[in-house]
Amino acid sequence: MSWSFQNSPQISHYHQRKGSLLQRLHIDLTLLILLASLSSIGILILMSSGQDDFGLLQRQATRLAVAFFAMLVVAQIPPHLLKMFAPWLFLLGGFLLLGVLFFGDMGKGAQRWLNLGLFRFQPSELLKLATPMMVAWYLAERRLPPNGKHITLVTIFITIPTVLIAKQPDLGTAILIASSGLAVLFLAGVSWRIIMGVIAAGTALAPILWSFMKDYQKQRVLTFLNPEEDPLGTGYHIIQSKIAIGSGGIYGKGWMNGSQARLEFLPESSTDFIFAVFSEEFGLIGCVGLLTIYLLIFVRSIYISIQAQDTFSRLLAGSLSLTFFIYLFVNVGMVTGILPVVGVPLPLVSYGGTSMVTLLIGFGILMSIHTHRKLLSS
Amino acid sequence: MKTSFDLKSSLRENRLFLSRASILVIFVLILFFALIARLTYLQIQTHDKYADLAQTNRVKLSVIAPVRGLIFDTHGRVLAENNPSYSLELVPEQIKDIHSTISKLSALIAISESEIKLFEKRRKQQKYFASVPLRNRLNDTEVAIFSAHRHLFPGVDIQARPLRHYPFPELTSHVVGYVGAINEKELKIIDPVNYRGSRFIGKTGIERTYENELHGHVGYQQTENTAQGRSIKVLTHTAPLSGSNLTLNLDIDLQKVAYEALGQFTGSVVAIDTRTGAIRAFVSKPGFNANLFAKGIDQTSYNALQTSSKRPLFNRSLRGQYPPGSTLKPFLGLAGLDYNTISPKQKIMCPGFYQLPKQSHKYRDWKRGGHGMTTLHDSIVESCDVYFYKLAHDLKIDRMHDFLSHFGFGQKTGIDILGEKSGLLPSRAWKKRNRKQAWYPGETLIAGIGQGFNLTTPLQLAHATAILANKGSAQSPSLVVKINDTKRQTKPITPVKLNNNEHWDLMLSAMYDVVNGARGTARKIRIGAPYKMAGKTGTAQVFSIKQDEEYEEDKVVEHLKDHALFIAFAPAKNPQLAIAVIVENGGHGGSVAAPIARAIFDEYILMSP
Asked: What is the rounded CA–CA span in Å between residue B245 and residue B483?
């Protein structure tokens, strides 16, 4: 509990309505509205980029419904239970990842899926949540800021799923999982000396990392550095995406009028590159608006983390908030050509199921943290 | 104890967390503004560049080939047209199983193995949604059969493409010519923009000469295209301008009569309307099937045409250069009169040969015993060679050259068809220039009977005959009379002026007697003709016979036989048509070439509307 926020009028207002319906349903209205508006915008762009494919819209809407439902279900689970589950979820995720390594289905040249008979499942999605939960669970029981021994142990927790997922290979998800774990460490107060040391070591080790990368990953980085070198091969995505965004201008070409996507020049226009479709049709004004919604969601989430009452909740909420924005940054950065193409979808907007469910379960955890607070008497 | 420690530590942890969270917020704000900055750069600073690129992506310019102009004969009958050629085409994108589709199709329509192979090759080269031809040139039955079963074959359809077609492929093969696929050499000459949609170009004849008029102007279409090149909608459309239709002076009936009159012979017939210079018949036999070229001729057929000893691809009327033989005599006779080397009444003794002073070499007459005392009139009617040996000897070669050149010998007539040969009208200067040799008097003598160096094209002969029939004036020969509805201007030649106009009548009456006189060399063709003709026969040597040898027709192999020639005009008093006939290795002009001219006159004067 932080004093500065405790006294703000909004909070006192919240407390007055502690017994309200939303509170009892464990719903955070601000987040819900922001997330719902983002999903609606997603459906709207999908109508344009998906070439009026009604089946595609229907599947996306179904997934959204399932994901929102999952979010509300998870919001009912009190944070102390989540904390209890954390190590077990992490262990389960680890085993499933190993399972993928040995029995996984191939999809688009990467081994990511585990066929569970009824449905296919990406264990990496589970670890997007389980990794920060595990780190938060571990650190919550220690004295903070953590000492060297704890830092080392936590680093191992983060490294195991990161390496396993990078081997699938899924660099995008590996980066997100690593950053979610590191975010917990950062929030736990790791000293700046160590942070700087790690950054320096990382820079020095970059060439070694390069040697471990798969050819297509290397190619992506090279293409990112100079997309014009291979305009019809790997550079094509970035060039066409920049054309789409740049040609949108300030006001955009109007909904359903983006030629780059509608004429199929833009690859992956419904999935990873959907932001380019949005930029082309709604222009800079639309982009600023869309990014602002993401920023507001982050601000609300980080506010929830600050409001959280125990270390586990705080660390987890903070990490989930940051990861969400990192998601957006990596996707938009890649689509606008300032980051390499790593295959991260635009959160809640891109077509695709699993990551959306994971994201909204994350927000379910945030809602749970915010609505299960015990009220302290003044 | 523990609790107080926890509380204290918890308080510290809270502060630490708050400071770290604030750093995260600042970090996220930096990322947020970095993205905004990047978007501002792309969407404002470099917007114009990317807008251009998007437009280039989106809009594709495609060409629409113009329709080639038609060619008609003088009575409006079609000589060259564009027929739809039906081809069976498949769109691979819309077909699930191409192999079974092809095998089902071949049960209906004959499809050969090589066609399937070609289809597979083309399919790999083209976009997957493009229509790929499987069979070309379907006939009407095949089109009907497929149309009845079309509903069973989604993605398969019949496409119609225009293909040049010549209704009289052999009759007009040389004069109308043909079109063919544009080759490398032509590609360098043609306007690349105007020909972007065109597959064919005029190769010979009128098709080549009037290529610019016939081709028309290309049209454009701007379409919005997908990344794969499929067009979604038409943005702008500039219609192509069809090629001009040409009306020829040619009369296809007359052409047919002339072609058939030549029979089994190879040779050439040119018929010119003396009043207008209009070419009414322009025959070179044998012809060939021009449609083979328009469809794309295969190598075997082409080689067969190329190597045939009768040289069917050779346009004899335009490019064949023959010794004129005795058909040159009327012109030389006029020269003798005009230069006063002979007078009309003057008689010359013809003993059957001629000798230059102080030389033993005998220049023979075609008639062994000679013609006896001969006037100019007789020498034309009976075609006395000795008379013209002497005439030539008196005239000398340069005066012969100067006079004959007024009738267009040795020069192109200026007909509106490319590739014309100019023939050869010898002179001292010419021999000096080309052979680096002095002129010999003996060469003058044989030039006097249209042999030796003399060469004329059938077109030149017909043109010269028209000038003669008109007593000196004529129009340049022309094939095209109208381009669309605009009449084409013809050029009159510089009229031939004689010192005494009576000389014309003298010569024309001599030519009249060639056909109508009792001893005329072409007297047989007048039988049954309700109109009067005038003409001159000729027999041109293909090889020289030695002094002591006799030319024996029966013993000479076919390709060394004399060429038979005949020039004529009719009606004699009021000429309408001038004709030159050359029958290669035909033998005598009077018996072989003259009847052909008669058949043409009959058609033109009696039958033509």
From this structure: 6
Please say whether the beta carbons of A133 and A201 come within 8 A.
Answer: no
Query: Is B42–A245 a contact, with Cβ atoms under 8 angstroms apart?
Result: yes
Domain count within chain B: 2
Per-residue DSSP letter, A8: S
Q: How far is CA A367 from CA A29, A71, A311, A320, B13, in A?
A: 9, 9, 16, 12, 22
Identify which of B35, B46, B232 has the shortest CB distance to residue A291: B35
Residue B230 and residue B256 in one domain: no
Q: Is A183 in contact with B24 (Cβ distance < 8 A)?
A: yes
| Contact predicate B281/B581, CB 8 Å | no
Q: Is B526 exposed, middle or buried (0-12, 13-18, 19+ CB in 10 A)?
A: middle
- Write out the catalytic residue numbers of B: 326
Domain stops at, among B214, B248, B282: B248
Looking up residue B236, the CATH number of its domain turns out to be 3.90.1310.10
Interface contact B31-A329, CB threshold 8 A: yes
**Are residues B551 and B480 part of one domain?**
yes
Contacts of A143 in chain B (CB under 8 A): 9
Report residue B95 as tokens: 């077909």
Give the other-Cβ count within 10 Å of A15's Cβ: 13
* pLDDT for res A4: 41
Helix orientation angle between A274-307 and A235-248, rounded to the nearest 10 degrees:
80
The pLDDT tens digits of the residues spanning B382-429 come to 999 999 999 999 999 999 999 999 999 999 999 999 999 999 999 999
Query: Could you tell me if B267 and B225 lie in one domain?
Result: no
Q: What is the CATH number of the domain that holds B456?
A: 3.40.710.10
Mark whether B244 and B352 lie in a shared domain.
Answer: no
> Which of B248, B272, B289 is the C-terminal boundary of a domain?
B248
Q: Which helix (H) or strand (E) holds B220?
A: strand B219-225
Three-class secondary structure of residue B305 per DSSP: helix
| Averaged pLDDT score across all residues of chain B | 87
Which structural domain, as residue segments, surrounds residue B134? 63-248
B32 is a domain residue:
no
Q: Does residue B70 belong to any structural domain of this protein?
A: yes
Domain assignment of residue B238, yes or no: yes
User: Which ipTM value was assigned to this complex?
Assistant: 0.88
**Angle at the Cα of B598 from the Cα atoms of B592 and B604, rounded to 5 degrees:** 145
Q: Binning pLDDT at 50, 70 and 90, where does residue B136 land?
A: confident
In a domain? residue B123: yes
- What's the distance, CA A329 to chain centroid? 10
B138 and B191 together in one domain: yes
Query: For testing the chain B interface, which of A142, A245, A247 should be mutated: the one with the most B CBs within 10 Å?
Result: A247
Q: Looking at the structure, do residues B264 and B173 belong to the same domain, yes or no? A: no
**Per the CB < 8 Å rule, is B43 touching A249?**
yes
Task: In whole angstroms, give the CA distance from residue B400 to residue B417.
Answer: 29
